[in-house]
Design brief:
Helix content is 78%, strand content 0%. By secondary structure, the chain is mainly alpha-helical. α3 (47-59) packs antiparallel against α4 (65-84), α4 (65-84) runs antiparallel to α5 (91-112) and α5 (91-112) packs parallel to α7 (150-170). It is globular, with a radius of gyration of 17 Å. It starts with 6 loop residues before the first helix and ends in a 6-residue tail after the last helix. The relative contact order is 0.15. The model has no long low-confidence stretch (mean pLDDT 91).
Length: 225
């Protein structure tokens, strides 16, 4: 475990893992068409892991307090996005919240110091990714008559790309893997919403999302004294 992961932070991290598993169970039950809990259960299980991860970030000993401040802002924005996406009408506000969360993570990485050659490699990789995924999503939006979402989706993909490139520049394995998992979650969600249904897609989205956010939080404690 990272040296900066205090006993209090470790305890909250365990609770966050339990909360995430509870949310996965609710999502899995709904995907099977046999919800074990009332529909409103997700209003509790979905935000809970992020609330607890914010607690983890606040009580651990960070390698850099300024980075922690930006990461807490990113987590809070992610929490707002989680709540917004519980309602179909909240898609655009949720998209904006998560876009800003990616920006906050990217700023946090920059504040903590990044290696420019690694950033350049991350940018190159994400540009190739964007050309494939971006064209696929934009094409699907146009084909389905939802061209009004093209701008926000492209902006969101750009924000993700900046965040991942900055994470690569941090040279922290936990941060890089966390950023990639967060991105995979977003892209799988977009695939299911705009392109085609994905079997067990909702469950996979949440597993990737929680794992990614958890690793990003853990990266705060790596290198702490």
């Amino acid at each position: 475990m990272p040296a900066g992961l205090t006993p209090a932070a470790l305890g909250l991290l365990c609770l966050a893992a339990i909360g995430a598993i509870a949310d996965w169970a609710v999502v899995a039950a709904r995907e099977r068409g046999r919800p074990a809990l009332p529909a409103r259960a997700r209003w509790l299980t979905k935000p809970l892991p992020l609330v607890l991860l914010i607690g983890v970030a606040l009580v651990l000993e960070p390698r850099d307090p300024a980075v922690r401040a930006w990461f807490v802002a990113a987590l809070a924005l992610s929490l707002a996005g989680d709540v917004a996406l519980l309602s179909e009408r909240g898609f655009v506000p949720g998209l904006v919240a998560f876009l800003l969360a990616h920006v906050a993570y990217a700023v946090g990485f920059v504040v903590g110091g990044i290696a420019l050659p690694a950033v350049a490699a991350g940018v190159a990789g994400m540009l190739a990714f964007d050309l494939v995924v971006g064209r696929r999503l934009v094409g699907a939006l146009r084909a389905s008559g939802r061209g009004s979402l093209e701008g926000p989706v492209v902006a969101y993909i750009a924000a993700i790309s900046v965040m991942v490139a900055a994470a690569v520049g941090s040279l922290l394995a936990a941060a890089i893997v966390g950023a990639v998992l967060f991105t995979a979650s977003d892209m799988l969600l977009a695939e299911g919403r705009f392109v085609r249904p994905v079997r067990r897609g909702d469950l996979a989205v949440m597993v990737l999302y929680h794992a990614g956010q958890g690793l990003l939080v853990l990266s705060l404690a790596i290198g702490a004294r």
